């Protein structure tokens, strides 16, 4: 169950990053509300997840999901570069997170 909590925490982290981007683009107050809610839920879920998962592993997976999620959303919805090097490094981040889980 803790792994599922960490995954959802990472997804809310991604949502917070997307809302930050929306704030930078439009300066609408709802984006700030979205940032606060998304990051608040994300950090709360992370704190629950680290009860059963080692801190370093949980944090690496959480930040990895946020990093990869933010990058993929940027590529799909905001016209950011889809250069093969970016995709390679996204794959490396994912591989590192899986590696941490396997060595736990």
Quick one: how many beta strands? 0
From the alpha carbons, calculate the radius of gyration and give it in angstroms.
14 Å
**Biggest pleated sheet:** none
Shape: flat
For the residues shown, what is the average pLDDT?
Answer: 93
Secondary structure category: mainly alpha
- Percent strand: under 5%
Q: Helical segment tally?
A: 4
* Overall helicity: over 70%
Distance separating the two termini: 16 Å
Low-confidence stretches: none
Order of helices and strands: HHHH
The structural domain count equals: 1
Secondary structure layout plus pairing:
Blueprint: H1 2-26, H2 29-49, H3 55-77, H4 84-102
Model description:
This protein has 104 residues and is mainly alpha-helical. Helix 1 runs antiparallel to helix 2 and helix 3 packs antiparallel against helix 4. 24% of the residues are buried.
Task: Provide the descriptors you would attach to this structure in a database record.
single chain, 104 residues, mainly alpha, 4 helices, 0% strand
How would you summarize what this structure contains?
85% of the residues lie in helices and 0% in strands. It contains 4 helices and no strands.
């Amino acid at each position: 169950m803790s792994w599922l909590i960490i995954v959802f925490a990472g997804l809310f982290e991604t949502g917070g990053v997307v809302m930050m981007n929306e704030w930078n683009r439009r300066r609408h107050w709802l984006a700030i509300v979205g940032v606060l809610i998304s990051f608040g839920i994300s950090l709360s879920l992370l704190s629950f997840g680290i009860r059963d998962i080692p801190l370093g592993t949980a944090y690496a997976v959480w930040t990895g999901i946020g990093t990869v999620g933010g990058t993929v959303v940027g590529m799909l919805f905001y016209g950011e570069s889809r250069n093969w090097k970016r995709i390679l490094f996204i794959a490396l981040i994912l591989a590192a997170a899986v590696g941490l889980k396997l060595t736990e």
